[in-house]
Every structure is written in structure tokens, then in C-alpha cells.
What does this fold into?
Amino acid sequence: MESPLRSMRAMRAMRAVNAAAGRPIPNHGKPWLTGLLLLGLLLASCGSEAVPSLEERAQRIDKQLVCPFCPAETIDQAQVPQAREMRAFVREKLSEGWTEQEILDYFSAPERYGPRVLAEPPKSGPTLTIWLLPPLGLLAGMALIFFTVKAMLKGREAPDADPPGDGPDTDPYLAQVDAEIQARREFPRPKKERSEPVNGDPSRG
Amino acid sequence: MAELGLISLLIALALAVYSLLASVLGSLRNSPALVESGRHATYLVTLAILISTFSLVGAFLSNDFQIQYVYANSSLAMPRAYTWVAIYAGNEGSLLFIAAVFSILASAGVALAPARFRPSLPYTNAVLMLIMVFFLAVMASLANPFAKLGFTPADGQGINPLLIHPGMFAHPPLLMTGLVMVSLPFAFALGALLSKRVADDWVDVARIWGILAWATLGTGLLLGSWWAYTILGWGGYWAWDPVENAGLMPWLGLTAFIHSIMVQKRQGMFRMWNLALINLTFGLALFGMFINRGGPVPSVHSFAASSLGWVFLGFMITGAFAPFIVFFMRYNLIKSARPLESSLSREAAFLVNNLLLLGVAFVTLWGVVYPLVSELFTGITVTVGAPFYNQVNGPLFLGLVLLMGVGPLLPWRRASGKTVKRTLLPPLVIALAVTVVIAALGVRNPYALLSFGLLALVAAGILLEWGRGTRARQRRGESYPRAFLTLIASNRPRYGGYVAHLAVVVLAAGIVGSSFYATQRDVLLLPGQSAEIQGYEVTYLESRSVQQSDRLESFFTLDVTRGGEFITTLEAERTFYPDFSISATRAGIRSTPVEDLYVVPSETREGDESIGFRIFVNPMVWWMWLAGPIMILGTVVALWPAGLLSKAPAPARRQTLPASRAPVR
It folds into this structure.
């Protein structure tokens, strides 16, 4: 119960600081920052989970070892006797003081089952490729989007030339068109909540 | 029966070839009569394939074990109702089933297309029939469901015991239907391209079929998870194995597609991208059909195992890449009606959404094919299991949830910082509050906290908008329920989408809860003994066994108490099939919105009365199953036909205004 209290205290402290500075609290200029800070605090304060028991550690290992006799199932899932024996072995070695990695290394040694017994391909050696490609692909995709958007935004220059820009917020012509279309629809809508008649109304996306 | 089935299969093949040729030639030579006759041939193909399918059903019902497929997938002891399952339990039968469903869908697609599709419809029909010819030709040559044995066995081998489950009546058919339904939006897109009618018309029809396929596939996947959860006996519902992945990938592609075509529908943008996207999705769906045909046992290695694998692979590559040739031939016809206006707009959010969805799809594809790649290039046999997918796809999914919260709140075209702040701040505050509350309740895992916070953001955004809209209408004198319903009716595609988003929130909440906070215990119990887990006291009472002709069924009764108070009695089942030397289990589950108590008899010992039970407490799994009905509801709302009709005048309105000032509908 320590950490949420701590973060709540932090929140209160922050409020106090804000109040002291004479800033209104709910519509504070940088609520994002406050939020991010809070979130950061929260995340930082919650790393402390209870030390896992031997059985919990064993179950974690079970989920990382593929049953060599029944493809595509971990020894945790598989119900064949060999998987049961492997589970018992994991527990035995853990109680003898082996680490998680030692057990995984034991099973994946070339003279035993080799790397195919690991549900998670090692992040080293030749299997590093499987881990590297996704982030690289994501970066490439983001770059592609970035340049596409940049190119598309360039094409906007022409219409943008007429002052003061045809942004929905400011263009009276568009607002009027929209209002007329609106009037022909089934329901006349209340104008009150829509300070941006063209695009601001989220119900018309 | 076998003869009738095979002959009608061959007739269907001939008709499909005729329909294909008539459509194309009739269109090229400008002969409406020929085009019409091609269309009619499509309907006849459906009829012929249905006759063929019913022949197979008849063969199953009359225990015609001379037919190899019937022999391999049924037996005298099989419950009759499972004939339906047996039809698609194996390779050949599932192909026939796919062909039958596909032929019905193709006929429906062609028959229901509005009149304005007349110029492109022959090409659409031709594309559909080309796919049809592939399935029929494969069955006629490599995978004949009516192939006969040289003798007539007295009894069949029987259906795979793992398929004896109510979920199997709906899960595989829905999955296969969803996969094959992707062909329809694809065929309409390609038809539009081939006939050079690349305006936005095809999007209307593609949207409907796309959403239908999305919902069908989604329901199929969810039912598959439910099946795995109740019968596979390891307490989980998703293992990232190739069969599941093969269904997930096209679903992700469809999800990207039904989002990004909204941009084209509304703004006339992303035209090229949408064509490419449906093409990719079709490729993934073909891959899914290849992996999925033939029940729950195939693996990536079936590529090499039979010539059928190579044929499928060839068709898949052709199907995924050939359309791009058409695409580039028509390249100069496909232009966006309007440029992107701002990187802070819903269009831009959709671009990122597409990137992430395809990112997950390709990570998954990469994981599925990696063992092959590794073996081919390094000679090392590796396994790619759940930890890989969870680690790589997990963050991508979180990004998607964030976008699901932010994207719908962004206006089309461009947003000012002010608008964004105003619409985004309230949900953000609520999300933070929720995060703080659940942290106070004891949730410590940072990923779980972040996930729940993001899910709260999405839900809050949707509910706040509904609340605002309902209140505005209520002030004009409508009652609250009526105001809410008219609000929903005012923009069904959008609010149907919101319902679907809520379904995803509910689903994701279940996944996050159960994957971070499941507890598991393995115990060995004698009758009368009990085990404790998470405050539950589970007592093994007794077992009874029933010997059936092909299996030994054992039932285990367990009492559950909590704090001395009786809660429920669970019955778990373990059935041994000597012919297959497989034990199928069925878990005893007590499901509540808070958590599931899940007991499965995981081990029996020869000459020992004690039974090994595996007991789980899985939080929030209940919510995952709730997501299914909500998703279907969202689909119905989004596709309700009136919304579709009101879209018709749109192009006219667009034309009356200068292009740069085209209004947003």
C-alpha cells in the first residue's frame, strides 16, 4: 500500500505548488506534464513485486520450454508424460539452486534438444535476426509515413495560399455550407457544443 | 453418392471456367448477353457445388466408408451431429466446404451489387471465378474428397477427438467463411481496377463485405479461443500457434482496411493505399486458408509435405503479387481527390493505425515463417513461441489502443491544438484517475497499469461523447433512451465503430487481466482431499467412469468453498481415446466477471486413486467472451442498411463544390 499513497501525496504536493503559484488547478496550462509526471511516478513506484516462489519461477520456466515430443506446445501446456518429467526436473533443479538460465541452457544444449526447445529464440547469435527485423521494419514504416505525410502536406500549398487559410475553424463559407447541409438532415442539431461547425463535431466523423 | 459428388464437382469446374471467360470476353467485346450468361453461370456453379457438398454429407450419413475421406474422418460410434464437423475436419473436405461457402458468397456478391457497378462487375465476377477455378481444380486433381478406397472397410477411423466439442460446430466454419469472404472486397477492388473505374464506388461494397468478413473472422477467432480454453486444458486461450496466427493476420489486415477506406469514403484520399491494403489482406487470407485447411494439426512443415502445399504456395504468391501488376498499369488513374492537410488529423491517425496493424500482422507472419527461414539459411531448427509474440506485438497493441483512444477524437482534415486539448483532456483525466485507483487496489505491474489506463482512455472518450450527444438531444425534449438511440442512428457507421471499439476494450481488459494475474497450481488429490488456491478451497469428491464403444469417459466432481462458504460443484471430464491414444479433457469452470476458477484433471495414474489436477484462477476471462456479442452488435449497427442508402447522394454533392472546398459529410 506504500506506493499509491506516495503518488497521491505527490499529487497533493503538486496541487499545493500549483495553488501557491496562484494557478487554477483544473485548467492548468500544462496538465499533460502533470499527468505524465504522475504516470511516471506511478510506474516507478510499482516495480516492487513480491519475490516469486519456487513454484512461480518453475511455472515461468515451463512456459519457455517447448515440449520436444509434441510440436508447438510448451511443457506447461503439453500433457504427455515426457513433459511431466521435464516439469519435475525443472522443480528439482530449482530447489538445488540452479538459476533459470542454467536450466534453459541445460535443455537447449546441442547434445540434448538444441535451441528448438526454447519457446523464445535467443537474443544472440543467428536468431538475433528474428528480434531485429520487427523494430527495423517499424522504423522503416514510420519513416515511410513521415515522408508520405510530408509529401502530401506539400501538395497542400496551393489551397493554403488563399488567406487566411481554409481551416475549418475560420472559413465562413465552409461553415455556411455545412450549416445548410446540416439543416436538411433529419434533426436540427444544437449549435451550442460545436464551436467548430465543420469538423469539430465528433459525432459526424 | 461419390459419383454424383465428383461429377457435379467437375461440372462446377467447367461452369466456373465458362463464367470466367464469358465475363471477360463479353466485357471486352461489349456483349451484354455474354456477360449476363457468365453471371448466370456463377449461380449454377453454386448449385453444382452444393449438390457435391450434399453428396458428401449423404456419404457420411450412410457410413460409406469406401470413400477415403469418410473412412478417415468418421466412424460408426461418432455422434451423428458431428457429421457437420467431419465435413471440414480433413484437408479435402475443408476445401469442399470453403468452395461451397465461397460459391454462395460469390453469387451473393454478384447478385447484390448495385446497378452502378455494371461496368466493373464482369471483371469482379471473373476474379471471383478465377479463385473458384483454383479451388475446384485442386479438388479435381490433388485433393479429391470423393476418392475411393479399393475395398470397403467395416468401420471408419473416426473423427479427431479434440474436435468433439460444441465450439467446433461454429469455430472452423466461421473462420473459413471469414477468410474466404476477404475475396469479395478484393474482387470488387480488382474489378474496379481492371475496368478502369477506379473512382470511390467500389469502396461502398468493399466496406460492407469487409466488415462482414471482419466480424465473421473475429467471431471465429474468439470461438476458437473459447474452444482452446475449455478443452486444451492448459488454462489459456491463445498460444500464438500457426493455426491461430493464420486467422489473426488477415483479421488485422481487414481491421486496417475497414479503417482506411473510411478516409477514402469521406475524403477521397488513400485510394492507392486501400487497393494495396485489400490486396495484402487477400494474400494473408490465402495463407490462412492454406494453414487452416484440415483441422487442428497442420504446421508450417505441411508446405514441404505434399505437392498440394506447393500448389497453394504458388497460388498464394500469384494472388498476392499479380494484382500489383494491374495496380501499376492503372497507376496514373488512381489519385487522391485531395491532399493531406495536417499531420494532426484523423486521416494521419489512420495512417499510423494502419502501420501498427500491419506491423502486428507482419511480426506474426515473420514469427510463423521464421523457423523455415532459419532452417533454410542457417540450418538451425528453432521454435518461435508465445514469448516472442508477446514481447514484440505487446507494445504494438498498446500503441493501437492509444490510437483507438485518440484517433476518433481528432477531427477530419486538421485539428487545432485547442480542439485537441479540449476533446482529449477529459478522457485523459479519467484515464489517469482510473490508473491511480487500480494502482491503489494493488495492481503493480507497470504494463498492466499502462494497459488499463489506455483502455480507460478509450472507453472514457467513447462514453463522454455519447453522454454529450445524448444530453444535447435530451435538452430538446427527447427522453434519455430515445435521445441515445437517435444519436446512434444519426451516424451508424461511426457509432457502430464505437461499439466495436468498446468490444476491443472489453476483450483487451480480459486479456490483460488474465495474462498478468493468473495463478496456477498443480496438485495430486485423493478423493476427499482438498487444495487451496487464492482463497478458494477445492475438494475432490469422487470420480465415475463410463465405457463407450470408442472411448473411456471419466468425470470428476469437485466442491468449491470460499471462507467456509459453499460456492459451487464443478465437474471436469477426461476422456481417453484408445484408437488415437489421446486424452481429451474438459475443464470444470466457474466463471464470474471477477475471475474464473478453472479445474482440469491433468493426470491419472495407473493403479493409483489419486488424480493430478491443475487449478487456475484466471481473472477477467469472462470479459473476453462478452466481447463477442458486443462486436457483433457493433457490426450490425455499422452495417444497418439505411445508413448505406443515405450515402448514395454523396458524389453529387462533392461535385457541386470546388474541389478544394469539398465539404466533409
Summary: Chain A is about 55% helix and 0% strand. The two ends of chain A are 43 Å apart (CA to CA). Residues 56 and 189 of chain A are 58 Å apart (CA to CA). Confidence is low (pLDDT under 50) at residues 1-11, 14-29, 157-171, 188-205 of chain A.
